[in-house]
Amino acid sequence: MIKNCINCNKIFDDYLDLYKTCPECREKESNLLRQVKDYLWDYPGTTEAKLRELFGVSHQQVTKWLREERLEITPDSSIKLTCVRCGSMILKGKYCADCARRVGEELNELKRELSPRAERESKQVYSMVIDKDMAPGGKMHFLQNKSRFHQNREEHGRDVSLTNGEHGNGSKEKNNTGKK
After folding, report:
1. Of 5, 145, 172, 174, whose Cβ has the fewest other Cβ atoms within 10 Å?
2. Domain ranges within the chain, ordered by starting residue
């Protein structure tokens, strides 16, 4: 996808639609962030005003780095960052610990709700059976769904399925541990 950089208005290719800035501006931002981090390492508790004075960093840029978890506020900082969900004070990111947990739980619940339906729609169940009455020459064949297998099983009155460790006569062979 061809885009214009939001910083310099230069045209650039963004094949995966991941960026708003061109590679040169991203490189400049990365270098600036490195300088800011190095300064903060040497002088923890520096104010946002001091960062603006020394590096020309805007409040929006500092907030962006905090939300992206590229910077972290110290507990005694004058910079205030709030959870986007509940409004409580946080040191980095978008969510407080409680909201992050809740959002994660909600996403997992959505995955659980959606995945069984998707699995049913995308997966076909096959059963391998031996049935002399249904297959020519009593050879193995596959049934596309279990309900058809169970219907045939009820009609013929015997278990014809082969599962791990079973024989067609319903007996089970012993496994390596000697247990049934």
Report:
1. 174
2. 2-71, 80-123, 124-173
